[in-house]
Amino acid sequence: MSVEPSPSVTGQTQPRPPRRSMTSAVEVRRSARRRRTVSAYREGDRTIVLIPARMSEAEEQRWVGVMLDKLAAQESRRTLGDGELAERAERLSTQYLGGRATPASVRWVTNQNTRWGSCTPAEGSIRLSHRLQGMPEYVVDYVLLHELAHLLVPGHGPRFWRLLEAYPRTERARGYLEGVVAAARLPHPTPPDGA
């Protein structure tokens, strides 16, 4: 599986009608010459996903999700500095919290190894762990929104969780983060003899 920055399909492709994702249209192109690899790239406001022609509808759906996550992670690694993080917080507050959460500062930190984010409501400061850098955008957005919600509700009671219900990818992001934590606890595999 690969992510390619530009189209590189040879042979006949069968474009599908564009689909809508959270941020842009998604166009799936099937190719009889493509055997095993799946790739994706951005083309203006569209995302093009290239898949083998033999792939089932269910596999196509799964791979589109995987590739959108990979592209989002790649873009997140490239572009998110503290300034962009603050802009993102403002956008999320406006979109999901009615603009009521207004942090004084939002920044990446390298000293949070047991938390994904933290918030000091009295100061209006939000800090996100550097470990989130490179994760899919929807995961970073969830953690940022979680900390923004703490500016309005300090604890994790029902009122707090009701604020996060507006974000459509809350459960998916929480599952992703739980998977990261679980994977970190797994023992590293021992290479087979002779490797």
From TrEMBL:
Q: Which CDD domains match?
A: M48_yhfN_like
Q: Which residues form the YgjP-like metallopeptidase domain?
A: 102-177
Which residue ranges does the record annotate as region Disordered?
A: 1-33
Which Pfam families does the UniProt record give? Answer: YgjP-like
- Where are stretches of biased composition, namely Polar residues? 1-14
Gene3D superfamilies the UniProt entry points to: Metalloproteases ('zincins'), catalytic domain
InterPro entries assigned to the protein according to its UniProt record, in alphabetical order: UTP_pyrophosphatase-like, YgjP-like_metallopeptidase
Top-rank taxon: Bacteria
Q: What is this protein called?
A: M48 family metallopeptidase
Give the source species.
Streptomyces yaizuensis
